Amino acid sequence: MQAEQARNRIEAELRKLGAELANEIEKRTLERDRIWNVSEDLLGVTNFEGYIVSFNPAWTRLLGWTEDELKSMP
Fold first, then answer.
1. What value does the mean pLDDT of the chain take?
2. Distance, CA of 69 to CA of 51 (rounded, Å)
3. Against a cut of 0.85, is the pTM above it?
4. Residue 46, phi then psi, degrees to nearest 5
5. Which of 15, 16, 33, 59 has the most CB atoms in a 10 Å sphere around its CB?
6. What are the percentages of helix, strand and coil residues in the chain, rounded to 5?
């Protein structure tokens, strides 16, 4: 009986920690996305071939190129 109670306590604590972690991840993701979208710096991610696979809106605002144009250039 004690082993079952201990297991239930541990499971409840793990659920609580999992929920806290999910909340922290959501908070940090929202903050990262906000910075990504409002930054005037050219932020981007490239693949190993040198092509841009993701970039923030500053690229199109500052350079005037479309998303397709930017993704087609190494």
1. 93
2. 11
3. no
4. -115, 160
5. 59
6. 65, 10, 25
